[in-house]
Amino acid sequence: xxxxxxxxxxxxxxxxxxxxxxxxIVKFLEHAIAQGSLRAGDRLxxxxxxxxxxxxxxxxxxxxxxxxxxxxxxxxxxxxxTFIAAPKVELTQSVDLSMNIPPPPADVDxxxxxxxxxxxxxxxxxxxxxxxxxxxxxxxVDRRAGAQWLKPMLGHVDTERVVACPGAQSxxxxxxxxxxxPDDVILMEPLGYPGMPMxxxxxxxxxxxxxxxxxxxxxDSLESACQRYNARVVYLNPTLQNPTTHTMPxxxxxxxxxxxxxxxxxxxxxxxYWLLAKDAPPPFARLIPARVFYxxxxxxxxxxxxxTAFVAFPDMESQHAFLSALRTFSLTSPLTTTLVTQWIxxxxxxxxxxxxxxxxxxxxxxxxxxxxxxTSGTVNHxxxxxxxxxxxxxxxxxxxxxxxEGLVVAPSSAFYxxxxxxxxxxxxxxxxxxxxxxxxxLRKLSSLLAQKPPVSHELVI
Length: 461
Description:
The longest helix has 23 residues. The strands form five sheets. The protein has a seven-stranded mixed sheet with strand order 4-12-11-10-9-5-6, with helices on both faces. Strands 13-14-17-16 form a four-stranded antiparallel sheet, with helices on one face. Strands 1-2 form a two-stranded antiparallel sheet. Helix 10 links the parallel strand 9 and strand 10. It is built from 16 helices and 17 strands. Helix 4 packs across helix 13 and helix 7 crosses helix 12. By secondary structure, it is of the alpha/beta class. The chain has three domains: 64 residues, Winged helix-like DNA-binding domain superfamily/Winged helix DNA-binding domain (Arc Repressor Mutant, subunit A); 116 residues, Alpha-Beta Complex (Aspartate Aminotransferase, domain 1); 219 residues, Type I PLP-dependent aspartate aminotransferase-like (Major domain) (Aspartate Aminotransferase, domain 2, 3-Layer(aba) Sandwich). Helices cover 42% and strands 13% of the residues. Keywords: Aminotransferase, DNA-binding, Pyridoxal phosphate, Transcription, Transcription regulation, Transferase. Its EC number is 2.6.1.9.
């Protein structure tokens, strides 16, 4: 049996800027296993010995081994030592490519960020205040953090015009209540975030769609729809749109803005992916701030566990109406909001965002390199791709076939308002914890796409 015990030859040396050393140990193991220099059953040096060989402290090795065990790379066998684990066969686990969440950054120590952030929160904040009810909107400190978070998108924003709320979905529901009356129509594109029409219909309003072209919502169609339905609110997700990944160019945004101003219409701008896009056009809230209610959630570019979104308002009157609506069904979570505020002020949020951006780019390259026909926008930085299917596959059939292979993807019908949705699927890239799992899932999906659907031989009686 191959014995690497004498020297840790599989550890190729630490590199600055490649993340925490304990995670680099895990990367060394993954690389060695992939290359075959470490095989199932190989015994690793004792942790203390490995620390000596690598010139690092024992705690770093212990954390590295703990993470490697969690990833099922190694296994402990009591007094015999630690060994490379045999590959685990999981017959029932599905790989979820349907949920849009940011990927875990490979080079960011999330555990350390949480520990440090919560330590600072507990040090600077009264525990009783963290564990009680808070009125929605956030403290003045939270709002200053929100203004800082929004600065790349909107430039300087008055702190008074920013509120913090528990996620984008609650913000959308409160805006629907604040800006419309029962039976009012809200306009959106035919393909869009399914949570919006769900909230609209549950709250007794109606959704009508506006025609689009290759640049997004058409200005002439928007004007006609506003007049036909007497609509005064339009919902837009203009950057790395969900699900199509399309980014509306600035010229079209300006054309839409002129229609909105002329007809006295308001825009709910849901912009969760702007910070993931490269050279994204300015948001509508920067072009016509007096007409736009701008939502930026941290769930799509940092972590869904933070459950925090910031909303910028055009005026104080509409903000008061929004907060009154929000308080009818939701209160701010002080613990997570305070953590978000701490991370924004101490730079941890920027560090995490940079990690998500880098990981998203890497996963986009994997997806577009593996899946012929995948569309991920012109910037290739988002967390999902939109795949137009070959003519011999229908989206519903492909989703069923993928599920039989242990893959879950989202059909276009989940996002489409109307009849005859496009023959396409959305593939989300963030749920897989590691690139290895994602690569295997994408290759399996690519192989499935290359095959024609099986011919049904069901007996008809």
